[in-house]
């Protein structure tokens, strides 16, 4: 949380205001779910009649299909990122354990 001066333009009863930005693994799942739901709707051509009346979609609906790929890629990238972060945390824990068992404990025993 970041503390800053109170805005002269906003009236609030709270003394503290803040903004939290966080990454969560559920975001990757959200992107996967959006792509999955899009595929189901597209397969049935559901809710597309109004779009087909628009000039950009008169010939085909390639704009929709082209839009799906970046969303799919972001979900895939996030999932890979979170997996790598998880593996990195495990490696750090293993290194800390090795450091404790092989360096610090023998050093402590040597001088006590």
Describe the structure.
It contains 3 helices and no strands. With 112 residues, the protein is mainly α. It has one domain (26-111): Helix hairpin bin (Helix Hairpins, Orthogonal Bundle), CATH 1.10.287. The model has no long low-confidence stretch (mean pLDDT 78).
User: What is the approximate shape?
Assistant: elongated
- The number of domains is 1
Distance between the termini: 43 Å
CATH class: Mainly Alpha
Measured as a percent range, the helix fraction is: 55-70%
CATH superfamily: Helix hairpin bin
CATH architecture descriptor text: Orthogonal Bundle
How many strands, what sense, and barrel or not for the largest sheet? none
Number of strands: 0
Total helical elements: 3
Structural class: mainly alpha
Protein topology:
Elements: H1 26-44, H2 49-52, H3 62-111
Would you kindly provide a brief summary of this structure?
With 112 residues, the chain is mostly helical. It is 65% helix and 0% strand.
Key features of this structure:
112 residues, elongated, single chain, 65% helix, mainly alpha
């Amino acid at each position: 949380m970041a503390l800053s001066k109170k805005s002269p333009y906003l009236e609030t009863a709270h003394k503290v205001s803040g903004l939290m930005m966080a990454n969560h693994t559920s975001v990757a799942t959200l992107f996967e779910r959006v792509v999955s739901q899009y595929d189901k709707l597209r397969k049935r051509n559901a809710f597309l009649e109004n779009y087909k009346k628009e000039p950009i979609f008169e010939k085909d609906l390639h704009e929709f299909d082209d839009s799906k790929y970046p969303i799919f890629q972001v979900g895939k990238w996030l999932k890979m990122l979170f997996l790598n972060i998880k593996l990195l945390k495990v490696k750090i824990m293993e290194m800390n354990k090795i450091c404790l068992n092989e360096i610090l404990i023998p050093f402590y025993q040597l001088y006590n």
